[in-house]
């Protein structure tokens, strides 16, 4: 995923690709919630990313230790830990990308929506600070319920007069990561060769993997497609139950978050044809936010791509996810405007 970076005599950062080298711009990335289950491994993965020059690790507690630890890794970026609201300004100033895995995770028996009451307020506060201190940053929202936290962020930015729909992303990469793994296992192909778009939202049936578009083609029977779809939709719950009260996916989420942030940085740096699925403002359906393939560029979203041809099974899945996704979006918008 990552390539090495060296410093030239002139002090510029050079990205090595085989024998060729090219300079990469300085980029500051902040992780908000950096001392958490996702935050810590994500901090490490972002420290390993040669496109990052400054890494700001913010949480309400414990970030000095995480930052000291990660800062000893032998890569280009300078790492700093920030703790408590007084230091949020410093953490955010100058950021190109802000990744938000702050908030409580699920326990067995809970839905992602059960996290709303606590996480909505956390996200709202953090987004108000982003609007103030780094209004131009790309925001990668991980905190659940993503189907509501992204609309909350949009409303906070609108109120502050800083909203740019090209810069707000709900991170749904873990759904793609899971769909790829499960498909590769069933189709008996190398997961590194697999691609599966996942559209809709990030909770239960709103997660809609499009296995009819999966590559390489495997012509799996309908019952396998249904089982793969269900497993992808329940992937988060599979981990929550296996962890039995100790939280939800953290390591695979950090991996997925690092892939998505890397794609954002590549887009900002002008790398062509960077495409990832993400939950963004959208006109792909009648819903105001929807996850689909998105082309990333120098300003964030360059193109929200359409769904492509759907099987009858996927078309039915699309229609049945809409009421739940609509309600989650509206809940977020209402919260942001009432509180
Ligand atoms: N989008 C996705 O695919 C996924 C989303 N998640 C979500 O990510 C969130 C975090 O999960 P974990 O890291 O496992 O939880 P965790 O509880 O281990 O870590 C959360 C961290 O957020 C911090 N935090 C709380 N309030 C904060 C604030 N106001 N400012 C900054 N930091 C604050 C906590 O101190 C803690 O260190 C949860 O909401 C979870 O549901 C988890 C997995 C996948
Ligand atoms: O399931 C959860 O609560 C965490 C999550 O979003 C996921 O793992 O996809």
Can you tell me about this structure?
The protein contains 10 helices and 14 strands. The chain has helices at residues 39-47, 63-71, 88-92, 116-133, 146-160, 173-187, 222-233, 235-243, 251-268, 312-338; strands spanning 5-7, 13-17, 20-23, 28-32, 54-59, 78-83, 97-100, 138-141, 168-170, 198-200, 207-209, 274-281, 289-297, 300-304. The strands form 4 sheets. It has a 6-stranded parallel beta sheet with strand order 6-5-4-7-8-9, with helices on both faces. Strand 2 (13-17) and strand 3 (20-23) form a beta hairpin. The chain binds 1,4-dihydronicotinamide adenine dinucleotide (NAI) and oxaloacetate ion (OAA). The site of oxaloacetate ion has 12 residues, from helix 8.
CATH topology of the largest domain: L-2-Hydroxyisocaproate Dehydrogenase, Chain A, domain 2
Count of alpha/pi helices: 10
Strand coverage percent: 15-25%
Per CATH, the architecture of the largest domain is Alpha-Beta Complex
Question: Tell me about the biggest sheet?
Answer: 6 strands, parallel
Span between N and C termini? 41 Å
Q: How would you write the strand order of the largest sheet?
A: 6-5-4-7-8-9
Radius of gyration: 19 Å
Mean pLDDT: 95
The low-pLDDT segments are 6-12
Number of domains: 2
Pfam family, one: Ldh_1_C
Family: Belongs to the LDH/MDH superfamily. MDH type 1 family.
Subunit structure: Homodimer.
GO molecular function: L-malate dehydrogenase (NAD+) activity
Write the layout of secondary structure elements.
Layout: E1 5-7, E2 13-17, E3 20-23, E4 28-32, H1 39-47, E5 54-59, H2 63-71, E6 78-83, H3 88-92, E7 97-100, H4 116-133, E8 138-141, H5 146-160, E9 168-170, H6 173-187, E10 198-200, E11 207-209, H7 222-233, H8 235-243, H9 251-268, E12 274-281, E13 289-297, E14 300-304, H10 312-338
This protein binds 1,4-dihydronicotinamide adenine dinucleotide and oxaloacetate ion (OAA).
